[in-house]
Design a protein that fits this description.
Helix content is 36%, strand content 18%. With 210 residues, the protein is of the alpha/beta class. It has a seven-stranded parallel β-sheet, with helices on both faces. Strands 7-8 form a two-stranded parallel sheet. Helix 1 crosses helix 6 and helix 3 packs parallel to helix 4. The longest helix has 21 residues. The protein is globular and about 45 Å long.
């Protein structure tokens, strides 16, 4: 029986992780810090937080495993600096605090093409986050790299929706790594990785998620 922390529970992938984790008998408690309240559940602890000022000494940091699905877009964030804070700084702070309180496994929803040396800002940010997470010292770290994510978002991303629609039309012709990955499949792999906690650093490419 494990206590699991989920950061990013209100997003597309995070909401699927939350549903799966609450239904999993091996999970005794899900701690999901968010800015706005989630639907109550007997297994859910939902502290309301400001990610700019996370409570470092809160008792709920003491979990065995963490799943992070935090992410945004530059258009939603408003600037590259704001995007970097959500996609890099916040996940890193969560990782450091959880590890300091004893967490041993961390599963991160990254992206296809993540590369700290990339000239593409988005890919470089994801790559730098992956690189810096490896320095935190988790005995088990899983980096999940989906390509296009299938599912209905609360917050519309027009460009992504168009890309997903086009990809579905030509799905049989695409290499597996470029096919649309359902959000629930990504959630399944993140949850499995966090609960199993296999030692070492593991990278799951998009084609492995289908």
């Amino acid at each position: 029986m494990k206590q699991l922390m989920l950061v990013g529970a209100t997003g597309l992938v995070g909401s699927h992780v939350l549903r799966q984790a609450l239904a999993d008998p091996s999970v005794v408690r899900v701690i999901a810090p968010t800015r706005k309240s989630l639907v109550p559940h007997p297994k859910l602890l939902n502290p309301l937080v400001d990610f700019e000022r996370l409570p470092e000494q809160a008792g709920w940091w003491a979990v065995e495993s963490v799943i992070c699905t935090l992410g945004t877009t530059i258009s939603v964030a408003g600037s590259k600096a704001a995007f970097y804070k959500v996609d890099h700084d916040h996940p890193l702070e969560v990782a450091h605090l959880a590890r300091r309180h004893g967490a041993r496994a961390f599963a991160f929803n990254s992206a296809l093409g993540a590369d700290a040396g990339s000239r593409v800002f988005y890919s470089r940010t994801k790559g730098e986050t992956e690189r810096d997470l490896q320095e935190v010292g988790f005995p088990s770290l899983t980096l999940v790299r989906p390509g296009l994510i299938g599912g209905d978002r609360e917050q519309s991303r027009l460009a992504e929706q168009l890309a997903v629609t086009l990809s579905r039309w030509v799905q049989p012709l695409l290499r597996r790594r470029y096919r649309v990955v359902p959000a629930e499949r990504i959630a399944h792999h993140l949850l499995t990785a966090a609960l199993v906690g296999a030692p070492g650093v593991h990278v799951l490419p998009s084609e492995a998620l289908l």
